[in-house]
Design a protein that fits this description.
Elements (H helix, E strand, L loop, with lengths): L1 H23 L17 E11 L11 H13 L7 E6 L5 H13 L3 E5 L11 E11 L24 H10 L12 H8 L1
Parallel strand pairs: 2-3
Antiparallel strand pairs: 1-4, 2-4
Amino acid sequence: MRQMKQTAYVLNALICVSFIALTACSNNYNVPKHTDHVMRASVEMVQLKYIIKPEEDTTDTPSAYTLSELDQFLTQTKITYSDTVLFDIANNTSEKRIAALTTHLKKRGVKYGGALKLSHTPELGSIHMYVERYTATPPECGQWRMEVSNQQRNNTSAHHGCATISALAKMVANPKDLVSGASVHQQINSNQ
């Protein structure tokens, strides 16, 4: 009889331990809760506008003054290889003028993205030039406040890896790659 009681106690203890083990594994701890704060870099696209006015003598060829003003704008904006230049042109703008300006941009190493309709139609003979630039803002890792929702779960903190993400956002050559990576075609062209 005594042996049966001991067996019953052992059996009850095993059931309790099994129940505790099963309930501990029943929650999905890999899914972040709404109270978890995940650190990520933010990427923003900025467009810088410059108006290329028509030549005073109404020729299609850009004058030295026009090209020097354009170069001054590009220098002031500190254009990099990850920036893209787009033209918004009036309907009467000649192809020869556009070709001369794109040739000048390419000589400076500026990537030309083409002519698009970006705003209202420019004045006759004017070209609205836009420098499209992506900027990455790293997360602020300085304040590692206590995460109440994470204490019982024994998972890594949402701050885990924040320094790595911050360093990546500061080092990346083209912040647009954080949104969508470069295609194979873009990578081949950049190596040439």
